Structure formats: C-alpha cells, structure tokens
Amino acid sequence: MIPAPLHPREDARLQALADAELLDTPPEAMFDDIVHLASYICGTPIALISLVDRERQWFKARTGIDGHESTRDVAFCAHAILDNGLFEVQDAHTDPRFADNPFVTGAPFVRFYAGVPLTVGDDALPIGTLCALDRRPRRLTPEQTEAMQALARQVVRNIEVRKAALRTKALNDELQRAAAALGTSEARLQALLAANPDGMVRVARDGTVLDRKLSRDRAILPDAQHMIGQNVADCFPPRLARLFLQQLERALASDTVQTLELQETVDGRACDKELRIVASGPHEALALIRDVTERKLGERAKDAFVATVSHELRTPLTSIRGSLSLLEHGMVGPLPEEALEMVQISRTNAERLLLVINDILDLEKLSAGQIDLSLRPVDPPRVLASAAESIRGMAAQAGVEVVVGECPVGAPVLADEARVIQILNNLLSNAIKFSPRGSRVDLSVEAGSCGRLRFCVTDHGPGIAREHHARVFERFHQLDASDSRKRGGTGLGLAIVKSLVEEHGGVVGLDSAPGHGSKFWFELPCCRGGGERP
Ligand code: ADP
Fold this sequence. Notes:
This protein is α+β, with helices and mostly antiparallel strands. 30% of the residues are buried. 43% of the residues lie in helices and 23% in strands. The protein is elongated. The chain has helices at 10-20, 29-42, 76-80, 102-105, 142-195, 232-235, 238-254, 293-328, 337-367, 380-390, 392-398, 417-434, 481-487, 493-503, and strands at residues 46-52, 56-63, 69-71, 87-89, 112-120, 125-134, 199-204, 209-213, 258-266, 269-281, 284-291, 376-378, 401-404, 413-415, 440-447, 452-459, 507-512, 518-525. The structure holds adenosine-5'-diphosphate. The site of adenosine-5'-diphosphate has 22 residues, from helix 12, helix 13 and helix 14.
C-alpha cells in the first residue's frame, strides 16, 4: 500500500476545510440526496461525500457503508484530492497503491473507485471528494463521468450556500443579542434619567439643543419644551448663554467637567442654578442643570457670618499688630532678648491672621457682588511691568528672577488695572514661593480663546498633577497642608484670582504636570471699539 503524499498547499487546504464548517456536523438532506444520485447514476452500491482532514477522512454524506470515517493513510480520497478531474481506480487488485489496502482485502471489499475533488474558494483548494465505489472492477462511461463532475459542482455550491446561511444566522443572532442589550441599557438609562431630579440638555458644539429632559422642578428649565433645534443663545438669558457657550467650548476641548453657577429670577423668586457640562461625544455635550437655591442660601448665611466675625476681628487685630510692632522696635524701652523673641513671633502670627482675614473679606465681597470694577482700557505691557516691580523685593529674597517677556499682542484689555495687578501679584507670589532658588519666573501675554488676551505666569517649581488642577482654585485648598507652614499662605489666593477674573468676564486655567513647573493663566476680554464692556 502506498499512502498519498500531502497536498502541496496542505495548510491552506486544511484552513479552507475548517472554514467550510462541515466536519462533524449532522447529516443534511441536500448532501444525502447527492450521494444517492451519484450511486444511482454510476450504478455503484457505495457513494460518499468525503472530507479529507489532517489525519482522517470523514463522511458528510454516505450510502452503502456504515462507518463515519477512516484514517487518512488508507483513504482513496487522499489520492483523489491531488487530481484535477476524475480520479479513477478501475481494479484495486492490480494497482500497487491499493492492492493490500484493508478496504480492498477486507470489508467493504472495494475493487473500483471514482472520485471528483470538491474545490472551494478563489484558490480552488480541494477539501474532499464526491466518490462512487464498487465491489467489482469497472470504468465510468463518459456520461457518468460528466454527471459526477456536475454533481461535485453542486456539492460545492451547496457548501457555499450553507456557509452564507450560517453567516446570516450568526449575524442575526448577534443583532438580536445587541438589540436586547440595547433595550436593557436604554431602559436602565431611562430609569436613571427619571430618578434624577436635575434638568438635562444635550447640545451640539455650536450650541444647538439636540435633546432635553425637564427636571421635576420646572423652574429649572422653564421653556424646555421649545428648546429642541434652537441655539442656547436664543433660548437662554443672554448672560447664561454667554457663559454656557464658553464652558461648552472648554468642556469639549479639555474633556473635563465644567461647572457654572448663576442666579436668576424665576416667577419673582431668586433661583440659584448649577450647570455641569460634560462632553458626551466628539461634537456634543450634556449639561446637567440643578436648582441649588437652598444650598446657596446656607452658604451665604455662613459666608456672612464668617465675614462679620472677620470684620470684627480685623480692627482689634490691627491694633494688636501695631502695639507688638512698637514693642519690637523698642518704643517703650529695650526688651530682654527672650521677650523680644516672643513679641516677634506674636507680631508675625498677627500679620498672618490679618492676611487670612483680608483674603476672606475680599472673597466675601466678590461672591456678594460687592466689588465695583472700574473698567478701562488697560495696556498689557504696563500692568506686567507694574506687577513685576511690586514683587521685586519678594523675588530677590527668594533668589528668583522675574522675567517680563515681549508683548506680541498690542490690543488693550478692558479691565480694572488695580485688580489685574492684584491677580498677577497673587500668581507671581505663588510662583516665587514654589520656585527653587536660582530659577526664573516668566510673565508673558499671548492670544487667548474667543478673541481674549491671555496673561501667563510660568514657573519651574514642583508642578501640579492634573487631578488637582480644578481644585487649587477652590477656597482653602492647599495641595500639601505643610506648605502653609513652610511657605506661608492662606489657600485663598487662587480662589480670589478666579473670582476676580470671572468678574471681568474672563477665564482662568492651569497647564502643569509634576516635575514640569506650572503655567497659571487668565484671559481677559479685549477692548472693542469705544472700550465698553463686551
Ligand atoms: P496659598 O495662599 O496657600 O498659596 P493659593 O490659593 O494661592 O493659596 O494656592 C492654593 C494651593 O495651590 C497652594 O497651597 C499650592 O498647594 C498650590 N499652588 C499654587 N500655586 C502653585 C505653584 N505655582 N506651584 C505649585 N503649587 C502651587
């Protein structure tokens, strides 16, 4: 017996066989019919659709024998798949390849074999055969040969149709599963939306309202029914719309949640609203709108209390500091060294306390809207120079150089000059505090967003991790509690900066990463024409 060599493209052929998804599947009528036809046309007792696997042949359809498979080395079909047309063995007894084959010497006592390869795919790889076998020697007539080849083509067509049907079914199953999953998550989303007391607006990048959900408290979005398809500029009050569009742009650019708070009069009552805007796609965002009137009332009461206490503390504290200073400078006679040291410590701490109180009072005035800005065209190079000059002493003491950069943008900003210097001073004193000795702090101006001018204070200090960027602008927020002792500070400076900048209609921001220094910036609106507030 001489086993057949492997097919020249055996790996690809086995892959094509696996892709056909036929091996070890139950019988199917469309293949059974063809083997019956082949047996009838050829007049043979046995006919098979045999698939030649790596080490076996497996019968997808069979008539005339009982087994499902045999080893590949004894398979006639392993020879037939190497042939292009019909592979015929007229008498196995006289063929040295098959004379001692166990199927020839034993059951089913094969003498005659005729097989046509089943070739699939663009590469026409033979995955098996359609074959007819007899127990006596013989040969097929030309008509029988032609019929076997036609039937083999039909088997291949059936395999392809079956595969397409399987693929469609798998796709359908997947679609059904996805639809079911979508239904569940949609239902969950609807439940969440219904449970959420907030109002919601989905907006496109240009501010067009795509969708909205009324809150349980209708006061939050009074005209919500008419909003879809409109721009927020046309359906929100002007100040809210302006701030909303600004924050929308920032939320989409930075992929962070932007928060906005404002007060409105609804049905004659003051209503505080909080908007949280978050990107919900590359070109759209979701704004959650919540009534925070009660919370704000509480906060205002607390702020007013703190302000009153601070105010009441300031006068006696100023006088304590003055008296300590007089004592320290020997106005009432020289002090013993130990007493002098005590007086100095008391005076420094009184000064720190005064600093905190002044910051608290400043912030209180800002949040109560009691700070009157005197808006005038302000020349950027002039404020940069003034701010640098006023901080020179602190910089020299810290061994830090403050460098004022070129001012490439000429347009003046519409601002309160003293407040801009206060903002710059706060940022500069932080930058100097956090800078290593011998390093520099840069003060510069560049073009900002929405036609605004951006003022930047850049240092080479420790930098701030991204997750703290928004929080450093909150009241009393210090990244490292020991900083206030080491470097001094109240944790209110940046909160004041933010309030002052926003009072100007501007925005604040921070670019920083640990180990790469910090760049604090704020943007102020440029003057338009006559210098009125934009
Ligand atoms: P403080 O008076 O404590 O400086 P701020 O509100 O000005 O309060 O700053 C809040 C916190 O932000 C600081 O305590 C510090 O942790 C961090 N911070 C501010 N500026 C810088 C900076 N330039 N480099 C590193 N950290 C800074």
